[in-house]
Write a structure and sequence with these properties.
There is one protein chain. By secondary structure, the protein is of the alpha/beta class. The protein contains seven helices and 16 strands. Strands 9-8-11-6-7-10 form a six-stranded antiparallel beta sheet. It has a five-stranded mixed beta sheet with strand order 2-1-5-3-4. It is globular, with a radius of gyration of 20 Å. The two termini are 25 Å apart. 43% of the residues are buried. The mean pLDDT is 89.
Amino acid sequence: MITFEGKSISLHPGQTVLAGLEGEGVSVETSCRAGVCQSCLMQAVDGDPGKRARQGLSPAQVAQGLFMPCVCVPDGDLVVARSGDAHQRVEAEVHSLEPLSDTVLRVRLKPLQAFDYRPGQFVRLITEDGLVRSYSIASTPDLGPLVELHVRMIPGGRMSARLKDATAPGDRLTVSGPSGGCTYDGVDADRPLILAGAGTGLAPLWGVLHDALARGHRGPITLYHGALDEAGLYLQQELRAIEANHAHVAYKPCLLSQGADLIATVKADESLKTAGIFLCGDAPLVERLRKALFLAGARLADIRADAFAAAA
C-alpha cells in the first residue's frame, strides 16, 4: 500500500510505485522508466523504498528520502510525496545548434539564471508540452556560460527530431538538474585516468577531460572512444589537437566495424589497476565494461559511470 497526498493506493504484486500512481491518474515526470535518468524522483516520507530505488543517487539525495518510483516495488507500506526541490529548474535559451556528425547534434544552451553543475553530470530537457529527455553535459562552467549537450539523432526520436527540425536559436527550453556523480571531483591529480565510452558517451568524457586539464591533472589521461563507423567518431580533429598539445593525453578511437573491441582494448591498458576510470554510454555497454574491468583488476571504487537509458 502506498499513500500519496492523503490517498491510499493498493499495488498489485510486482507493481512499481510509478505504475500505481499513474493508474490513479497522478502525473509524474518520467523519461527512461528504468532507474537511470532520475527524472521521476519522489520522496519517501515514511517507509523504505528499498536499495534498488536509490541506486545511483548521491548520499545527500538518499538523506532527503529521495527514490526512483519507476523501479520501486516496496516490501511494505510507503508514504510518498513529490520531491519539491530535488531538481533545480531554470529556463534556458537555445544559443546554437551545430551538427557534429550525421548522427550527433551539438546543442548549446544559455541558462537565464544561475545554474550550477559539474562537467560529466547530466540534465533533463523539458519542452513546453512536457516531453522530457536526459542528456549529459559536455561543457565546463569555468570556460563559459553555455551548457553544451551532444544529442544523438535517433530515428523516430521525439526530442532529437524536435531539436533538429523544429528548434532554432532563441527558442526556450526548461533545464532540470543536474544529476549524476561522473565528475572529476576528488581525483588525485597524479594518478592515471582512463576515460572510455561509445557514441555520445563521449559528451561527459569530453567535459571530464577538459575539467581535468583545466584543474592541472598531471597523471596520464587516455580517452577511448568507440563507434560503429568513422562517422560515429565525432570531434576527432579536436581530440587530436588536445593530444598534440598535451604530452600526457592519448586519444584512442575504436572502430567496431573494423573489428576493434572497445572492452578488450580498455582491459589491456597498463594503468588499469591504479587508474581513476570513467565509463559513459549506453547502459548495457557500461555494465559490460564495468564488469570486465573489475575482473581484470580495476577497483570498483575507482570506477565512475554515466549509463544512458533510452526513453520509454
